[in-house]
Amino acid sequence: MSAFMENIDWSEIGQATLDTLSMLGGSMVLTVIFGLPLGVILFLTGKGQMLQNRVANGVLSLAVNILRSVPFVILLIVMIPLTVTLVGTSLGVAGAIPPLVVGAAPFFARLVETALREVDKGVIEASFAMGAKRRQVVLGALLPEAMPGLIAAATVTAIALVSYTAMAGVVGAGGLGDLAIRFGYQRFQTDVMVVTVVLLLVLVQALQMVGDAVVRRVSHR
């Protein structure tokens, strides 16, 4: 066993794990900040909704679909000039966050839109009947009723971001993906590859378990 693990530098593994968690945490916060309002607007401007607007909905849907259809590895490369402009570098944790957010926010927005569609229309109609304004309906009825779906959407997005952080290693973003590529793949160090893959699997499983637990806690059913 010790012979198999001869290439493992646990301090480097630990730093790579922290880098992955930093990328995941920072990009997830920004993804929710940008993706949640975008998903809400997509829903509200849709057919039959309170802010129905065919043009606005079509433009937003097209933009979301375009960003979702670009492979993340290509997005990483295409965004390098913009990333350097925004954060001053295209390398490391800071350089990975802008493309991570651009890649994940449209994905999360679509999941938010889907979650909002699952809300019983009777809840919205009852809120209007009690004299609530649009903003009050959205904040006081729509979003709370959709909370289990929104948390499930955030969980799915966080898991997708884990795979994105691994791919970000291609452009030197750091983290477990970078370690797997530089040592596991390029230097044929199978032990490094196995450890990084196992850690990524554990991270994904932990995210899923926490997400499922929170969904059960906030679910009304």
Task: Put the structure in a nutshell.
This protein is mainly alpha-helical.
What does this structure look like?
The chain is mostly helical and 221 residues long. It has a single domain, classed as MetI-like fold, CATH 1.10.3720.10. It is 79% helix and 0% strand. The chain has helices at residues 10-44, 54-69, 72-78, 80-87, 92-117, 121-129, 134-145, 147-167, 175-185, 190-218. The longest helix is centred in the N-terminal third of the chain and has 35 residues, at 10-44. It is elongated. The N and C termini lie far apart (48 Å). The model has no long low-confidence stretch (mean pLDDT 87).
Tell me which CATH architecture applies here.
Answer: Orthogonal Bundle
Number of strands: 0
The number of helical runs is 10
Strand content: under 5%
Question: What proportion of the residues is helical, as a percent range?
Answer: over 70%
- Average of per-residue pLDDT values: 87
| Alpha carbon gap, first and last residue | 48 Å
Instruction: Summarize the helix and strand pattern as letters.
Output: HHHHHHHHHH
- Structural class call reads mainly alpha
**Rg, please?**
20 Å
Count of all domains: 1
Sum up the overall morphology in one term. Answer: elongated
What is the CATH class name? Mainly Alpha
Q: What can be said about the biggest beta sheet?
A: none
- The fold-level CATH name is MetI-like fold
Low-confidence stretches: none
Fourth-level CATH superfamily? MetI-like
Assembly type:
single chain
